[in-house]
Structure formats: structure tokens, C-alpha cells
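Duplicate of #3305? Posting structure anyway:
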């Protein structure tokens, strides 16, 4: 194989590739040997069909398959030997080809630019930790205690008020008839919460122990017995007890009931919980700073074909006039995103960052936790949409790259209070909101599409150049 690099115009190159006649014939001979043992022709024993007969019978089909294989193998090898990483699918132009002839073709390719990732080693960003004041922790613990009230017994003559716990037995009827599930024993209701049936609690205000009370309520839309939905039911209630709420004592026992070792341990856990609530958002701010710094790194030339692809994505759903009007703005955004993607991708490759199937599954599980009650729908979506899984892979890949850049970079560590954290996050949110408002053209996408999607497009060199689809050799 002889390879000549021609027409070097910036990132565009033509590779003239020549495979001599002898090499092509050896490929053909190999293919004939391969099919010889599988072809059954009348008048010949299996495996004994002469090559000339095979040529007459299957020559065109054999050459088609051989041509396809040679083009794939040699184009990949030519790119690798010349250390060319193409940005997108190379174009292939056949010049000379045919049986018992040399093969000559031109591979036109746009090369990915050289990327310097050294600046990433000293990248600067703010790294926040939130100092949680003891008063904040105490306030949160009091809120928890308030939502877990204790109730104490009262005197028999005590009348129930809103906030009290009423225990009762009941038997219900609709139009004087009993129905399935019409009885309840020792049912406990906190008056005012209206968690049983709408308006039920209010009718128990003023009852006391051993009272009997008829309560009327409408059966709800989700009632199991469909024929009784929206029917008015009468509940004959026997009041078993009335209890008053009492303030929960915040002590070691309270802490143990919540799974902590003691009150000191609970305070430590709550403090960490509050900190974690801010950590993810503040970490994202740090990563946004890193991405902004990456945008400042220079790349001499960005491949035009990648810019065109990105502009198409940015202008999706627009009219032709809107797309034309925003073209220049989109091209600038496209360059920034592609440049960032190329830099991150190069860093990922140099540091041999991989994404395992376990990490993908963990990410899917995270998505499931974010949509309680819709787990099956989400799982079905990922199972039926490989592109969605590829997008998740890209998210994980990007996250791992940014985390490694953070580890290698120079963090400006800042300890801030909870109120300062809230102020920083609000300002960032307002700034992003303004940007989103200005960019009504598209939803704000990731700076780099998804890294893995970009990665696959940069690897197109290793995918084989497209050729005519060739029929398989028929076997008779």
C-alpha cells in the first residue's frame, strides 16, 4: 500500500491510496479459497471447483466483497499510520478499480485540530464549603421534632380540639346498606389534617371518650368500590380515646428514635445533611467556572463540518428566517461548544478515563430515584432508546473528566456561611435565568453536546469509509 498526503489546506487533507494489482489479486485468491469449500456446483465434487469456474459464476460478487474489505482495512490503516483523527466521516472517491487491476482511491478527510491540555493542570476555580452554624442545626432539629408530635392521654371529659389525636371504631353505610371495607377498628386521626375523608375531621371537634357520633362524608374518586364513588356515606363512630399533643423532648432518646447514637451524633448528622443540600449546587458552580476557563484556551481552527452540525442542532424547530437571523450567533456558540468538547475529550483520552456499565446503571438508578412512582416508565424508556443510554454515558464521562480536572487544578478554597451560600446560588440562578431568557432560540444544552457523542464523532476515522452495499456471494 502506498499512501500520499495531498492538498493540505488547514485541517483538510486528501490521502491518495494505491494498492498494487498483485496485492488485489492475492485478496481475490483468498476469497476464492474461502468460498471453494462451501460451493456446490453440478459436475464438481465439494471443494474441487476450479477457480476459473468460480470466477465465471461469482466473479462480480467476490470482487464486490473484496473491494469493500480492502477499502475498509486500508483507509483505517492509512489514517492510523499518518496519525490523522478525522472530524466526521471521510469521503471516498474511487479512481481505478476492477478485477485484475490495481486499486487507487482518494480519501478526503477533515482532521481534528491539535489540542493543548497543559493549561488544565493549573486551572483556577472557587471551591466552597459551607460552615453550618449551631443555631441552624438546632432549628432543623426543632422542625423535625415538631413534625413528630407525642400525644398524652386526657381525662374522660376532655373534648377534642384541632390538633388532638382521636381514636375511634366506625361502621359505615350508603343508603342504609353496608359495603365491602365499611368497618374500621382503632382508627387514629389527628384532627385538622383531613387525611381520612374530606370534612370528616371537622365533625369530630368536641367529641370526648365513649361518645357515639354519626359522621357524614362523600366517598372519594379513588374508592375501590366503583359504584359507590361520590356517594354520601354515614359513619357510626364510637370514640375510644382523645389525646392531647405534647412537645417532644429533644434528648438522647429522641435522637436514638431517629437512628442516631445520641443527641450529639444527631446534630453532627443534621449539620452534614444541611451542608450536602448546598454542596451539589456549589460544586456545579465550580465546574461552570472550570468550563469558562476552558473556553479561554485557544484552538487555532475548529472543523467547519462540526460547526455546521452543531448549528443545525441549535436551530432545530426554527423557521428558515429565524435560523438565518441567528446564524452568526449560533456559529459562535457552536465553536465554543465544539472547542470545549475537543479539549475535554482530549483530556479524557490522555488520562484514559472510561465509563463502566456499573456506572451507567448507577446513573439510571439515580434517574429512577428522581421520579418516584414512574420507575417502570423510566426503565422502559432507557431500554427502548439506546441513544438515551449513550447520552447518560456522555454525562458520566463529562462528570469524571471535570472531577479529575478539579483534582489536578488549583482550588481557591472558601468557607462560607449558609446565608452566603444562598446568596451566591441565587445570583448564579438569576444570571442563568437572564441568559436563558436571552437565548429563547434554544434550551440551554450541555457545553459539549454529550462528550461521548462528540467522542464518537471524533472517532469516525476508525469507522470504515462507506462504500456501495455489495451482495454476499451466493452459494449453490
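Output from current build:
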Amino acid at each position: 500500500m502506498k499512501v500520499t498526503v495531498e492538498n493540505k489546506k488547514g485541517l483538510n487533507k486528501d490521502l491518495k491510496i494505491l494498492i498494487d494489482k498483485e496485492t488485489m489479486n492475492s485478496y481475490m485468491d483468498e476469497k476464492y479459497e474461502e468460498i471453494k469449500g462451501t460451493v456446490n456446483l453440478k459436475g464438481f465434487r465439494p471443494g474441487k471447483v476450479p477457480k476459473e469456474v468460480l470466477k465465471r459464476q461469482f466473479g462480480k460478487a467476490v470482487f464486490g466483497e473484496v473491494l469493500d474489505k480492502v477499502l475498509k482495512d486500508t483507509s483505517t490503516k492509512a489514517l492510523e499510520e499518518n496519525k490523522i483523527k478525522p472530524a466526521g466521516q471521510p469521503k471516498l472517491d474511487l479512481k481505478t478499480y476492477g478485477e485484475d487491476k490495481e486499486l487507487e482511491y482518494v480519501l478526503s478527510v477533515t482532521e481534528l485540530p491539535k489540542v493543548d491540555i497543559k493549561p488544565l493542570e493549573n486551572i483556577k476555580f472557587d471551591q466552597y464549603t459551607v460552615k453550618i452554624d449551631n443555631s441552624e442545626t438546632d432549628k432543623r432539629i426543632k422542625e423535625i421534632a415538631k413534625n413528630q408530635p407525642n400525644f398524652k392521654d386526657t381525662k374522660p371529659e376532655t373534648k377534642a380540639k384541632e390538633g388532638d389525636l382521636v381514636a375511634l371504631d366506625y361502621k359505615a353505610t350508603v343508603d342504609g346498606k353496608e359495603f365491602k371495607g365499611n368497618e374500621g377498628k382503632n382508627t387514629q386521626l389527628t384532627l385538622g389534617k383531613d387525611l381520612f375523608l374530606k370534612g370528616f375531621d371537622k365533625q369530630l371537634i368536641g367529641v370526648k371518650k365513649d361518645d357515639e357520633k354519626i359522621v357524614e362524608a362523600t366517598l372519594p374518586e379513588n374508592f375501590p368500590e366503583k359504584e359507590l364513588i361520590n356517594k354520601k356515606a354515614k359513619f357510626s363512630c364510637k370514640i375510644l380515646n382523645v389525646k392531647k399533643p405534647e412537645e417532644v423532648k429533644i434528648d438522647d432518646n429522641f435522637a436514638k428514635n431517629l437512628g442516631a447514637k445520641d443527641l450529639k451524633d444527631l446534630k453532627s448528622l443534621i449539620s452534614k445533611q444541611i451542608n450536602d443540600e448546598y454542596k451539589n449546587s456549589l460544586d456545579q458552580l465550580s465546574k461552570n467556572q472550570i468550563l469558562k476557563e476552558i473556553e479561554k484556551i485557544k484552538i487555532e481552527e475548529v472543523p467547519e463540518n462540526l460547526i455546521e452540525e452543531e448549528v443545525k442542532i441549535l436551530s432545530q424547530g426554527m423557521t428558515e428566517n429565524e435560523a438565518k437571523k441567528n446564524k452568526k450567533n449560533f456559529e459562535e456558540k457552536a465553536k465554543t461548544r465544539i472547542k470545549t468538547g475537543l479539549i475535554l475529550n482530549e483530556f479524557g483520552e490522555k488520562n484514559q478515563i472510561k465509563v463502566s456499565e456499573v456506572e451507567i446503571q448507577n446513573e439510571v438508578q439515580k434517574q429512577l430515584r428522581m421520579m418516584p412512582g414512574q420507575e417502570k416508565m423510566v426503565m422502559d424508556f432507557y431500554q427502548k432508546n439506546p441513544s438515551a443510554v449513550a447520552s447518560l454515558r456522555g454525562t458520566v464521562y463529562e462528570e469524571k473528566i471535570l472531577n479529575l480536572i478539579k483534582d489536578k487544578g488549583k482550588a481557591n478554597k472558601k468557607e462560607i456561611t449558609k446565608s452566603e451560600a444562598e446568596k451566591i446560588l441565587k445570583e448564579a440562578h438569576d444570571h442563568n435565568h437572564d441568559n436563558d431568557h436571552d437565548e429563547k432560540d434554544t434550551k440551554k444544552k450541555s457545553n459539549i453536546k454529550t462528550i461521548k457523542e462528540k467522542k464518537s464523532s471524533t472517532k469516525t476515522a476508525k469507522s470504515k469509509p462507506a462504500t456501495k452495499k455489495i451482495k454476499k456471494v451466493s452459494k449453490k
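Confirmed duplicate; merging threads. Confidence is low (pLDDT under 50) at residues 440-476. The longest helix spans residues 263-295.
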